[in-house]
Specification:
This protein is of the alpha/beta class. It has two domains: 146 residues, D-Maltodextrin-Binding Protein, domain 2 (3-Layer(aba) Sandwich), CATH 3.40.190.10; 88 residues, 3-Layer(aba) Sandwich (D-Maltodextrin-Binding Protein, domain 2). Helices cover 36% and strands 24% of the residues. The strands form two sheets. It has a six-stranded mixed β-sheet. Strands 7-6-8-5-9 form a five-stranded mixed β-sheet. The protein starts with a strand and ends in a 10-residue tail after the last helix.
């Protein structure tokens, strides 16, 4: 490509180790970084406002073509800590679920698990803006993702981790977001970019030292909750999730 590659990133704590490697590698000279939240980034990839990004995997059915350009992702193989259903009552008593607008991947995962794993069919409401979390009370639960989930963990009585539930349901890992391009990128860039991701994971201790955070142990989060390697268990989990998405009528208006 004759210009810099427009790379979309998510402004969440879980991306910091990968960004550390990118920012400390020569590949940074070939990149123009665009930062936003997951659902907006997904739409930017569809509309070709970025060339690649760490996007929610529910975007894949909407892309004319897609290329996974790294062996690294935002995934888990058990409890993920930051994609959870929060409630004041046990799961079987939940009547309504407020859905976090930040990522349609997590929303679709929650709907699959509620119906097929927990076997309940509550009313769903798309949350608008940040203020919805105060409505998580009584029999109204809420899906909260990302850094805000750390705050909610200190407020809600019941916490249902979607990563843990997915593993119990399928026996597989889960990929929440992957480095996906909407066009073929130069092989030299892909190799350098992959190496940069790997470098970041070798410096998690430095990332933790540079990140003042009191709500959760980031060593625990980066090394045990988030699982960054796109291994065979996560690839199988991604295939299963995309298969189950096909069984659900996807919205015509993109909001992933």
């Amino acid at each position: 490509m004759q210009r810099k590659i427009r790379l979309g990133v998510i402004n969440y704590l879980n991306v910091k180790p990968l960004l550390y490697g990118i920012q400390h590698s020569p590949v940074i000279n070939d990149i123009e970084i665009v930062e936003t939240y997951p659902a907006r980034l997904a739409q930017m990839l569809v509309e070709d406002e970025v060339d690649a990004g760490i996007v929610p995997v529910a975007i894949i059915p909407y892309l004319k073509e897609h290329h996974i350009v790294s062996d690294y992702c935002i995934g888990c193989d058990g409890p993920v800590a930051t994609v959870c259903l929060f409630s004041e009552v046990p799961i079987e008593r939940i009547q309504k679920v407020l859905l976090d607008y930040h990522s349609r991947t997590s929303v679709m995962l929650a709907k699959i698990l509620l119906k097929r794993y927990w076997k309940i069919e509550p009313e769903f409401e798309d949350a608008k803006g940040e203020e919805y979390r105060h409505r998580i009370t009584g029999t109204t639960a809420g899906l909260v993702i990302g850094d805000r989930a750390f705050e909610q963990r200190r407020q809600s009585t019941y916490i249902y981790d979607l990563g843990e539930a997915w593993k119990d349901y399928t026996g597989l890992g889960f990929v929440f977001a992957a480095w996906i391009a909407n066009k073929a990128l130069p092989e030299t860039f892909v190799t350098a970019f992959n190496n940069a991701n790997a470098l970041g994971l070798q410096h998690i201790d430095e990332v933790v030292a540079q990140t003042a955070y009191k709500l959760f142990d980031l060593n625990q989060y980066y090394k045990h909750n988030i699982n960054y390697v796109m291994d065979e268990r996560k690839k199988a989990g991604l295939e299963e999730f995309l298969f189950q998405l096909k069984q659900i009528r996807l919205p015509q208006i993109l909001n992933v």
